[in-house]
Amino acid sequence: MKAILHIDQKKLKKNTERILKKCLQENISVMGVTKGFSGNPDIADILVDSGVHYLADARIKNIKKICSYRCPKSLIKNACFV
């Protein structure tokens, strides 16, 4: 059984803009992470249109989906320390 995620795009845009505003006041750059959305271009559009400075994902196949955006991209991974 697959999980279905419903995203209110208007709320995502509004919340992203709020976070960006607060971060910019403190001179903090914002990276939009598309990991939970499997690199969905619709979500990346919202993040970029809202003003995020970077896009990131944990999977190369998802980075390929967002490679056309004219902002820096980053591959993120958790480091395991044993």
Tag the structure with descriptive keywords.
82 residues, alpha/beta, 3-stranded parallel sheet, single chain
Q: What can you tell me about this protein's structure?
A:
The chain is of the alpha/beta class and 82 residues long. It has one domain (9-75). 40% of the residues lie in helices and 12% in strands. The protein is built from 3 helices and 3 strands, in the order H-E-H-E-H-E. It has helices at 9-25, 41-50, 60-65; strands spanning 31-33, 54-57, 73-75. Strands 1-2-3 form a 3-stranded parallel beta sheet. Helix 1 runs parallel beside helix 2. The longest helix is centred in the first third of the chain and has 17 residues, at 9-25. The chain is globular, with a radius of gyration of 14 Å. The N and C termini lie far apart (34 Å). The model has no long low-confidence stretch (mean pLDDT 91).
Write a brief structural summary.
40% of the residues lie in helices and 12% in strands. By secondary structure, the protein is of the alpha/beta class.
Q: How much helix, percentage-wise, in residues?
A: 40-55%
For the largest beta sheet, what order do the strands appear in spatially?
A: 1-2-3
Mean pLDDT: 91
Identify low-pLDDT runs: none
**Judging from the principal axes of the Cα atoms, what is the shape?**
globular
By DSSP (H or I, 4+ residues per run), the number of helices equals 3
Separation of the first and last Cα atoms: 34 Å
The topology string of helices and strands comes to HEHEHE
Oligomer class: single chain
Structural class: alpha/beta
Work out the number of β strands. 3
Instruction: Kindly give the count of domains.
Output: 1
Gyration radius, to the nearest Å?
14 Å
| Biggest β-sheet strands, sense, barrel | 3 strands, parallel
Strand content: 5-15%
